[in-house]
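User: Hello! My lab partner asked me to get a predicted holo structure for this protein. The small molecule is zinc ion, SMILES included with the sequence. Please write out the structure tokens.
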Amino acid sequence: MNDGMVSYENFNNARPWWRTHIFTEIVTCRDGVGDLRKLLRERASRPFFIIDEILKPQRAFAPIFACEGKYVFDASYSEPRTRDVDRVVALLKNERGIPDAIVGVGGGASMDLAKAVSICLANPRPSAEYQGYGMDMERGPDIWVLPTLAGTGAEVTPIAVLRGPEKKLGINNDNVAPKVAVIDPALSAGAKKFNRFFSMMDCYFHHYEITHSKTSAPDAVLDSRDGVEIARSVLSQDLSEFDIDRAVDSAVASVLGGSSSIGGRVGVSHAISYGLSNASPHLPHSVAVAISMLACGDIYSDGGFDDTVKFLEINGLARPTGREYGIFESHIPGMTRTALGMEKLWLSHFGENWRDTVDEKFISDIYKRIVSA
Ligand SMILES: [Zn+2]
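Assistant: Hello! Below are the structure tokens for the protein in complex with zinc ion.
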């Protein structure tokens, strides 16, 4: 648990606060952009930046926008698309040359795009063909990340979530884990409240669901128990104003969210959220999980549902609905098929006999509650 051990004053000397073995070197610092550039000068000769265009007006990021080797990316679409990946890969292969480091600067989408570009540079097929699990893939250029939003855990996870022509699905491969994550909590100061709130909500959901998982590794569950406490304490406050102590806690919880998801597995709200995401391409992942949690009060009756309602109230936010994102009754059969396919997540929550509880009717009843909310 954080217990105030990590403050912004001592953040650059913070000791590892996670238990799960992670692939990523975590560099805690208080001059994110400056320290990133200094380290890159020492360790890479041809870095290439992938940066979220929303950061452009912020002075802190001007040195990166001034670099020639960069791709400015509109991350407002909820996940990077496979065609974004293929476009950057073609640009590097055909015009710019292969870099020795791909640096993702921004939230989960920018980091995931950097991860996917790196591995696709080293493998011949279009990115959509690598969405999935257990594929043998060569390692690409080193992946570096500079998160500007806490909560996604993307700074640590070996997953690059992509929206393909057919589905939203990650490239799940150890070779997409970042090699170095440079973390400065102050870099989220310019993020909108909506984004700071919902990315921490997703962090909370990850931790909460892993603490309920029957198939997660013990270390992952311990990391999640710490993470859920920290995320709960952050979200129990009004996040309207940026606050550096909360940002430190958020950064700590986010890394725990990444570490716990390496050995851990989320559960019901995430399974339901994938159906929603496939039905609505612009629905942000974190909002999809919140909508799902709000329809799972009977399953998550020991805190998950009540906390979600409370966090939204404290922050003066309305409960998000499927309708706002164009999700209606006609989507239920398709969403039900998608969710039913999330076998590992049902197994995680209900254990080996999950089929005794979960069937088409069980799932479509949840979606019925969502579309009528
Ligand atoms: Zn999530």
